[in-house]
Specification:
heterodimer, A: alpha/beta, Isopropylmalate Dehydrogenase, eleven-stranded mixed beta sheet, 10 helices, globular, B: mainly alpha, Non-ribosomal Peptide Synthetase Peptidyl Carrier Protein, Chain A, about 50% helix
Chain lengths: ~325, ~100
């Protein structure tokens, strides 16, 4: 972590199933580790915040509220105020475990898009046991996309893969239904040609769903609908496997000793697969660092999300995105 | 905002409102401002979807709100704004300089 002091990370204290308690706990933990944090929310409901500064926001956009409408109607909501804090130079990044669409809308309408970016995309790290995570984008911001947007996603995803995961020259794959060029729908075919010709990225061609968790590709680009389906399928699949493994180990009493021996290895593997380890997804393409955490985020997830936010501020991520895509 | 860049505040005339709408729309759609004309339809001519329109409305409210306090584009009026002209007329009616 750099010694350069950064502006605080604005944390939406009201967003998420476990807000505000777990969010405040995570924020306090991150602050105790040296990261400046600004809590945003209804000050009377946050409990003991220790020494953390609080930016009061009287409204909350609920998890099931229409995103754009919520941002327009609740101008004093924690999400909108957090995004404004970044825009106005009072915070260097924002983190929320609340309504994903509203987090995006707040960032889009208040921080604005990086000049040249057509549409921001949500980039989610997909765990690769034994390797660096694969960046999947768009994993839910734009249900439908154009081929040109996919090229920008490739460029932005490459920047993130490089600066967050240290991949020197990220390999970009276009998610499709076959590896051969020419496979896929009209959008994929058009995007394929544009990606081949696009400067600044290492395009390796089409990739399939099963390639996501191998070490063969670093950035996978797709539309937000497909990306979200992939993300939730993986999440559910991994959960099911872990549950089944634990059930198998507990199936007979004679397995108990072996389970005991294997447990550290299993816990290590679980940590690699656990979304909480990564803190959350990033909204790429807005003029500020914006981390979107899982609605079920615990304090641990929030600490990691805040750390990622701080790391990306230190890395100058937004400037790198601007250079890669911006006009 | 430094004083030397501060433009005269107060209601805008129709031409200024058109230019504001045109320039914000150009930013949002990533197109040349010169290609935007009043007669164009947001959906059919400019391929501006609902998210782009809301971005436009938010930007307009922010800028015009500095000159005309409390300026707001009502959500129920949004669906009536089909062309660039509709948007300019709407803003002018509520925040324009009376002639």
């Amino acid at each position: 972590m750099s010694d350069v002091t950064i502006l605080p990370i604005a944390v939406d204290a009201m967003g998420g199933d476990k807000a505000p308690g777990e969010i405040v706990a995570g924020a306090r933990q991150a602050a105790s580790e040296g990261i400046p944090v600004l809590l945003v929310g209804r000050s009377g409901e946050l409990g003991d915040v220790g020494d953390l500064p609080v930016l009061h926001a009287s409204e909350v956009i609920e998890m099931d509220e229409d995103p754009a409408g919520g941002v327009r109607r609740k101008k004093d909501s924690s999400l909108v105020r957090a995004a404004e804090a970044v825009r106005d130079g009072k915070a260097s990044a924002m983190v929320s475990a609340g309504n994903t669409g509203a987090t995006m809308a707040s960032a889009l309408f208040r921080m604005g898009r990086i000049k040249g970016v057509s549409r921001p995309a949500i980039a989610t790290p997909i765990p690769v046991p034994g390797g660096t995570p694969t960046v999947l984008l768009d994993s839910g911001a734009n249900a439908e996309v154009s081929a040109e947007w996919l090229v920008q996603f490739a460029q932005m995803g490459s920047v993130l893969s490089h600066h967050r995961f240290g991949v020197a020259t990220p390999r970009v794959g276009l998610l499709s239904i076959g590896e051969e060029p020419g496979k896929g729908d009209a959008l994929r075919k058009e995007a394929f040609e544009l990606l081949v010709a696009a400067p600044g990225i290492q395009f390796i061609g089409n990739v399939e769903g099963r390639d996501m968790m191998t070490g063969d590709v670093d950035v996978v680009v797709t539309d937000g609908f497909t990306g979200n389906v992939v993300l939730k399928t993986l999440e559910g699949g991994l959960k099911a496997i872990v549950k089944a493994l634990l059930a198998a180990f507990g199936a007979k009493p004679e397995y108990a000793d072996a389970t005991q021996t294997l447990m550290p290895a299993l816990l290590g593997l679980y940590s690699v697969l656990d979304p909480e380890t990564y803190g959350g997804a990033m909204l790429l393409g807005v003029d500020g660092v914006c981390i979107i955490s899982h609605g079920s985020s615990s304090a641990r997830a929030m600490v990691n999300a805040i750390k990622v936010g701080a790391d990306m501020v230190h890395a100058g991520l937004v400037d790198h995105l601007r250079a890669a895509v911006g006009s | 905002m430094p004083a030397e860049t501060h433009v005269e505040q107060g209601p805008m005339d129709r031409r200024e409102i058109f230019e504001l709408v045109r320039d914000r729309l150009a930013d949002i759609l990533e197109i040349e401002p010169g290609t935007i004309t009043e007669g164009q339809s947001f959906a059919d001519d400019l391929q501006a979807d609902s998210l782009a329109l809301i971005e436009l409305v938010e930007a307009l409210e922010e800028e015009i709100g500095e000159r005309t306090v409390g300026f707001r584009i009502e959500d129920e009026d949004l669906e009536d704004l089909k062309t660039v002209r509709d948007a300019v007329d709407y803003v002018f009616a509520r925040a324009g300089k009376p002639s």
